[in-house]
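Mods, move this if it's the wrong board.
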Amino acid sequence: MLFLVIIIIIIVIIIIIIIIAVWMYILLLRVALLYATIFGNVTTVCQQMYRTTGRYREVLNNVQDFIKLHQLPLPLGERVIDFVESSWAISKGIDADKVGRLRRRTLVK
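Not the wrong board. Structure tokens:
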């Protein structure tokens, strides 16, 4: 009789250990999924920042090349660069006309 009770206790302990192990595994998977989601979103934000910065530098380099090519006077060249910088700061590089055309196209469908 005592032997049967000991076996039942051992079986219950093993079942409890298995339940805890499964619960820990599920918790580990949840944490890994949460980490991957956060890391993926941060990576996407960083890539968009670098892409936007690259476009800004490209536009600014094109304007400077234009100023050199057409040999604009220094005050006029500075005003053009100031205009490009301020318009970029206002629009954050978003072309409102392009967005408007895209919106009209999707509304027509």
